[in-house]
Amino acid sequence: MEKMSRVTTALGGSVLTGRTMHCHLDAPANAISVCRDAAQVVVAGRSIFKIYAIEEEQFVEKLNLRVGRKPSLNLSCADVVWHQMDENLLATAATNGVVVTWNLGRPSRNKQDQLFTEHKRTVNKVCFHPTEAHVLLSGSQDGFMKCFDLRRKDSVSTFSGQSESVRDVQFSIRDYFTFASTFENGNVQLWDIRRPDRCERMFTAHNGPVFCCDWHPEDRGWLATGGRDKMVKVWDMTTHRAKEMHCVQTIASVARVKWRPECRHHLATCSMMVDHNIYVWDVRRPFVPAAMFEEHRDVTTGIAWRHPHDPSFLLSGSKDSSLCQHLFRDASQPVERANPEGLCYGLFGDLAFAAKESLVAAESGRKPYTGDRRHPIFFKRKLDPAEPFAGLASSALSVFETEPGGGGMRWFVDTAERYALAGRPLAELCDHNAKVARELGRNQVAQTWTMLRIIYCSPGLVPTANLNHSVGKGGSCGLPLMNSFNLKDMAPGLGSEARLDRSKGDARSDTVLLDSSATLITNEDNEETEGSDVPADYLLGDVEGEEDELYLLDPEHAHPEEPECVLPQEAFPLRHEIVDTPPGPEHLQDKADSPHVSGSEADVASLAPVDSCFSLLSVSHALYDSRLPPDFFSVLVRDMLHFYAEQGDVQMAVSVLIILGERVRKDIDEQTQEHWYTSYIDLLQRFRLWNVSNEVVKLSTSRAVSCLNQASTTLHVNCSHCKRPMSSRGWVCDRCHRCASMCAVCHHVVKGLFVWCQGCSHGGHLQHIMKWLEGSSHCPAGCGHLCEYS
């Protein structure tokens, strides 16, 4: 879309008038160049070589320089330049290594003047001397630069850059004999045309090929370079060593860079690939472009300011077969859309907040919000009033620091170091990690580990330490572990499978019915608890102590004379007399043999008083048994892992992944698992927990992660006899032909783990050395050193 704004600029005796406009070309353009009076532009490419007149409303084709019936590679142009002293003289760089000059003053149709065929590969750049009409410089893919005198048929000097290819050459505007060249190895060289034997200066400018350079039109020593590393750098060449003055970070490789006339700190860039836009940067503000032109739909291949003293008009050619004139007034300005606010948390909980300076100044007397632990520290940059963007939005940075020892990440380090991820049964791992989380004050995480143990582990025997807590100090027998849960936390529909037949005689036991619609608890004396408004927590009582686990006396061993207890109707249980301590196992066995016990009583859920202070809901079978499918809780566990990951606790997500292994791995896609693992490993390495990080990598269930500690790992081994490096992979040195690693105990070659003393350098098999040092502290090799293994 063409924009109708118009600019008129008076330059000496001439006047430039125009607007944003474009024209369609016959083929993609590789380069453009403007004549001295800014009235014409030449466009060159592989299949196009034309001159257009720049009129007020449009581009008008004036001359087609591709003449002749037979196509020639001499007309396939990689670069073109128009002499700034002679308006009839042009030069092109051909893809076949030929440098061609063109004389527009010739009366014939063919304007070709001279051919220079000294380069062996593609010529990337040609450049006329700014003040000498007959001096032409070229840079080629063959690594050579040649200086031609147009009055002669051959080059007058050859410059070797000792590199693979030359990407750009530019004569200095202020220094008569100096020119700069850029290379694919990242170097920039400065040459004196009078000394072709060696360069005057060379330095590494970019990490990768340097594609372009441009001398500043006003500052004598400023040189701008652009490369594949997506950076534009400004160098001060007046110092003894090249000094980097400014660095602009772009989003793609920089193909062209041109200083903006009459604007000391502005330059224009275009990309070699990916990005089709043209940017104008203020090098003092390197992260946001000052202006952006978005007219092209393909890669921009050439840019040129229309006049060396007019900053308003920019010309460009592109691979989309278009030629555009951009009016600076019509450019979009990303700096106006930039967000001057930002928020970021530091590794140790510090908060950095950037806001508009106008807001900070208006609220200088504001009170810190409740989250502030200290008064904010402001860092304000003193602005130069002469800067063109001084009036735009600028930010002031506030830093809210955490108190020493408060709100830190010590819990993360302690958890990582104390967690057990392998080497034990699943139940022990869950119990251990729950204990660790509870000791660190992370109760929700501890409860999660407890629930995982209940879900995936079958009931076992209660540890001795838990008996006193569960059934009192009088209990001495091992009681089967009972899985516990809260009624209101049960999954819908789970209790529907537990409906039991109550029609078997009058001597039925208490029955618990769990349904998706309501919690129904019935017995002979209480039939009105359905739909009760009393919270489930009150009905079940509050469990106190360190272990929130419920244990059940086997119903087959219940005391025959022990009265059955039911759930209370009151919100809080009434005080009652302490029941007698249940008899020993010999009396429990009599209950199982009693003919008065119904066969269905052992299968139903029962309510038994386990303490005098509270009543508990007990279930006599595991939640995760043969009646439930193996993946019944998989969806719940998967959602739990995603919850912790979204909360930022990848430590919990990864730990559960490792411990549960194949039980949950199939329910989470491989990419998500890899993302969690890499995030957790990155955090561990930031806190320098190298051993824990390596353990996580080794135990990883993701293939992409488990190979991290096997890549780029090199172990250098020297022979223990001749001290030379071991070049082969065997155990025999190639130089002295002796075994490099002999065990000092068994005197055999060590082909596995080798341990040695750092004091005397003797060693051997790990197991042999450990066994030796159990009985003696002297070195087994007989050197007399007191070795120590820890």
From TrEMBL:
Its EC number is 2.3.2.27. Pathway: Protein modification; protein ubiquitination. Keywords: Autophagy, Lysosome, Membrane, Metal-binding, Repeat, Transferase, Ubl conjugation pathway, WD repeat, Zinc, Zinc-finger. It catalyses: S-ubiquitinyl-[E2 ubiquitin-conjugating enzyme]-L-cysteine + [acceptor protein]-L-lysine = [E2 ubiquitin-conjugating enzyme]-L-cysteine + N(6)-ubiquitinyl-[acceptor protein]-L-lysine. GO terms for molecular function: ubiquitin protein ligase activity; zinc ion binding. The keyword Translocase does not apply. It comes from the Eukaryota. The keyword Repeat applies. Pfam families: WD40. GO terms for biological process: autophagy; cellular response to amino acid starvation; cytoplasmic translation; negative regulation of TORC1 signaling; negative regulation of translational initiation; positive regulation of macroautophagy; positive regulation of TORC1 signaling; positive regulation of translational initiation. WD repeats lie at residues 116-158, 203-245. It is found in: Lysosome membrane. Belongs to the WD repeat WDR24 family. Catalytic component of the GATOR2 complex, a multiprotein complex that acts as an activator of the amino acid-sensing branch of the mTORC1 signaling pathway. The GATOR2 complex indirectly activates mTORC1 through the inhibition of the GATOR1 subcomplex. GATOR2 probably acts as an E3 ubiquitin-protein ligase toward GATOR1. In the presence of abundant amino acids, the GATOR2 complex mediates ubiquitination of the NPRL2 core component of the GATOR1 complex, leading to GATOR1 inactivation. In the absence of amino acids, GATOR2 is inhibited, activating the GATOR1 complex. PANTHER family: GATOR COMPLEX PROTEIN WDR24. Component of the GATOR2 subcomplex, composed of MIOS, SEC13, SEH1L, WDR24 and WDR59. The GATOR2 complex interacts with CASTOR1 and CASTOR2; the interaction is negatively regulated by arginine. The GATOR2 complex interacts with SESN1, SESN2 and SESN3; the interaction is negatively regulated by amino acids. SESN1, SESN2 and SESN3 convey leucine availability via direct interaction with SEH1L and WDR24. This is GATOR2 complex protein WDR24. It comes from Macaca mulatta.
